[in-house]
């Protein structure tokens, strides 16, 4: 589904990604963890083209995202992304947030778009809030609308960039539950997160990144119980000490 | 009066007057105050104030009828008396000047003839402002989009345009466009040249306002909408601009008020708008009344507009 080949990314002199090689197969739930500055968000943003790779290639279903000639908009129809700061459109209702892209990009009729949108909002448990504006929704509710919005385009892959990091603790689980349901339905997911519980319970693969490279890559439970690399051990001891 | 004569002629009342009798000084002050407004102008007023001060110094406690109240009353009357004298003197001295002022600014014969003409010309002023504003809003936005474009050439053109236009006086731009373009074979009417010049000038300023509004929108909005597969233009049209424009309505409205006033400059290429007609009237009748009429017409439009802007600022701030 996704193939990352020798991905490098520099911001001026700062090296964010220093040679990433990764393959994500269909229906895998890849959880990416690591200290801040390790490049996890940058890697995710390279996958859907929000950042331009300095070197290397990314193939999504065979299409080279990094190639200049690729129609990036078409690629993005297949790759959904959910952000840490939700980024809902404040001037539109929850329903309109979800229907905007299908109508304008896929030329769906308004009725069809509304139908799909309401079904998705119901799926994330917010059908009764379809006419609410983002300002009237809690953080957890906004994030769930954001998930529905990304799903409305019918993507094959969903990217989650620290989607619970900006939420109050008691709102985190409603979002993680929604993501869990999605995973159980077979969606291919790349999740950058600090939620280790989610990684263990839902993740099918855990990737630990540090300083722009993949340090460890394997089964979540195995890595938690028996981290191989010293940097991995160090990271987990710091995180798990106050969990 | 009777009290006074009694006080001065009979011995025991005099000693009573000299004793620290609070109410005596206070009473005297009040009497002097009344005299100061009637029979004994300046002197009565001055004495009223003096007596009041003495009475107040001797007061040990507030006693409305006895001391403080009467003294205050006397002092107040004294002050009023002095003020009235001062105003009367001022009016007497200024009477000639006041008459000249009214005659120059509000000459009725001139007003009768020229204010209707100015009013009629003001319609041209309004027409010029509205027509220009229409184009300014559109051109300004286009230049703003060029200014933030990823294409270097677009950015360069926009920056040069904005810098040059904002660096030149509007009156100069009006002249260059009206006279200069005719040498190229393009003969614009005075109205058209004025509208073009105003559009060229104000769109440079408004482009910067639009740009500030667009850049104030969180980057995540564009990222989210692009991530959904929308193009840059679609994202601008449906996500960024709707939010940005709401934010810039107050500053753009202020610009419109300024534009309305700047239409007066087009008088200098001979367009028959309010200021030109007012100047003509002033020249012919040798007084300022026609221009006062121009001023009033402008204020009738600009001041309500300022209140509208205030209202919009409050309304739109609530929405955010």
Strand tally of chain B: 0
* Mass-distribution shape of chain A: globular
What oligomeric state is this?
heterodimer
Spans of chain A with pLDDT under 50 lasting ≥5 residues? Answer: none
Low-confidence segments of chain B, ≥5 residues, pLDDT <50?
1-21
Write the layout of secondary structure elements.
The complex is a heterodimer of chains A (243) and B (320).
Chain A: E1 2-11, E2 14-24, E3 29-33, H1 40-47, E4 55-60, E5 63-64, H2 72-78, E6 79-82, H3 94-105, H4 110-123, H5 139-151, E7 157-161, H6 169-184, E8 188-192, H7 196-201, E9 205-210, E10 213-218, H8 220-225, H9 230-240
Parallel strand pairs in A: 3-8, 3-9, 6-7, 7-8
Antiparallel strand pairs in A: 1-2, 1-4, 4-5, 9-10
Helix pairs in contact in A: 3-4, 3-5, 4-5, 5-6
Chain B: H1 2-9, H2 11-18, H3 22-37, H4 41-58, H5 68-105, H6 108-147, H7 152-167, H8 170-183, H9 190-215, H10 219-227, H11 232-262, H12 274-285, H13 289-319
Could you describe the 3D structure shown?
The complex is a heterodimer of chains A (243) and B (320). Chain A is of the alpha/beta class. In chain A, helix 3 (94-105) packs across helix 4 (110-123), helix 3 runs parallel beside helix 5 and helix 4 packs across helix 5. Chain A has a six-stranded mixed sheet with strand order 6-7-8-3-9-10, sandwiched between helices. In chain A, strands 2-1-4-5 form a four-stranded antiparallel sheet, covered by helices on one side. Chain A starts with a strand and ends with a helix. Chain A contains nine helices and ten strands. Chain B is an all-alpha fold and 320 residues long. Helices cover 83% and strands 0% of the residues of chain B. Chain B contains 13 helices and no strands. The longest helix of chain B has 40 residues, at 108-147. The radius of gyration of chain B is 35 Å and the shape is elongated. The termini of chain B are far apart. The chains are: A alpha/beta (243), B mainly alpha (320). Chain A binds chain B through residues 48, 50, 73-74, 76-77, 79-81, 83, 85, 87-91, 100-101, 104-105, 146, 149-150, 153, and chain B through 218, 220-221, 223-231, 234, 238-239, 242-243, 246.
């Amino acid at each position: 589904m996704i193939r990352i080949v020798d991905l490098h990314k520099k911001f001026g002199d700062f090296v964010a990604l220093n040679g990433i090689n990764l393959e994500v197969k269909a229906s895998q739930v890849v959880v990416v963890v690591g200290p801040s500055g390790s490049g996890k968000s940058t890697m995710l943003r390279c996958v859907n083209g929000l950042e331009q790779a300095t070197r290397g290639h990314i193939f999504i279903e065979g299409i080279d995202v990094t190639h200049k000639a690729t129609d990036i908009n078409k690629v993005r129809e297949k790759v959904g992304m959910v952000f840490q700061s939700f980024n809902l459109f404040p001037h539109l209702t929850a329903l309109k947030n979800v229907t905007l892209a299908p109508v304008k990009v896929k030329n769906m009729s308004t009725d069809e778009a509304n139908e799909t949108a309401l079904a998705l909002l119901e799926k994330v448990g917010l059908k009764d809030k379809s006419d609410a504006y983002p300002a009237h929704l809690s953080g957890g509710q906004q994030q769930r609308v954001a998930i529905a919005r990304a799903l409305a385009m019918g993507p094959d892959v969903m990217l989650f960039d620290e989607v619970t990091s900006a939420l109050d603790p008691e709102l985190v689980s409603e979002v993680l539950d929604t993501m869990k349901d999605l995973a159980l339905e077979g969606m291919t997911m790349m999740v950058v997160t600090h939620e280790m519980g989610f990684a263990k319970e839902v993740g099918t693969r855990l990737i630990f990144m540090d300083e722009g490279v993949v340090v460890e890559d394997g089964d979540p439970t195995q890595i938690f119980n028996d981290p191989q690399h010293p940097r991995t051990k160090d990271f987990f001891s710091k995180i798990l000490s106050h969990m | 009066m009777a009290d006074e004569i009694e006080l001065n002629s009979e011995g025991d009342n005099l000693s009573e007057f000299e004793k620290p009798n609070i109410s005596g000084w206070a009473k005297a002050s009040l009497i002097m105050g009344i005299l100061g407004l009637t029979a004994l102008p300046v002197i009565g007023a001055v004495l009223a104030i003096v007596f009041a001060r003495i009475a107040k110094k001797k007061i040990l406690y507030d006693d409305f009828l006895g001391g403080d109240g009467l003294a205050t009353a006397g002092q107040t009357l004294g002050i009023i008396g002095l003020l009235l004298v001062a105003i009367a003197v001022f009016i007497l001295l200024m009477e000639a000047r006041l008459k000249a002022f009214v005659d120059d600014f509000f000459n009725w014969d001139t007003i009768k003839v020229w204010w209707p003409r100015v009013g009629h010309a003001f319609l041209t002023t309004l027409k010029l402002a509205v027509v220009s504003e229409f184009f300014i809003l559109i051109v300004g936005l286009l230049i703003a989009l060029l200014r933030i474009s990823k294409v270097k050439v677009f950015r360069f053109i926009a920056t040069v345009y904005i810098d040059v236009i904002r660096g030149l006086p509007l009156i100069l731009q009006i002249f260059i466009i009206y006279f200069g373009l005719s040498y190229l074979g393009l003969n614009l009417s005075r109205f058209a040249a004025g509208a073009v010049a105003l559009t060229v000038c104000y769109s440079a300023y408004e482009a910067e306002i639009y740009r500030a509004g667009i850049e104030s929108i969180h980057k995540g909005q564009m990222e989210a909408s692009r991530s959904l597969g929308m193009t840059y233009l679609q994202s601008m049209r449906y996500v960024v601009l709707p939010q940005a424009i709401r934010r810039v309505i107050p500053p753009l409205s202020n610009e419109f008020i300024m534009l309305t006033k700047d239409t007066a400059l087009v008088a200098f290429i001979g367009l028959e708008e309010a200021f030109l007609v007012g100047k003509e009237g002033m020249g012919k009748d040798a007084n300022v009344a026609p221009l006062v009429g121009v001023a009033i017409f402008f204020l009738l439009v600009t001041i309500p507009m300022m209140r509208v802007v205030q209202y919009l600022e409050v309304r739109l701030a609530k929405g955010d």
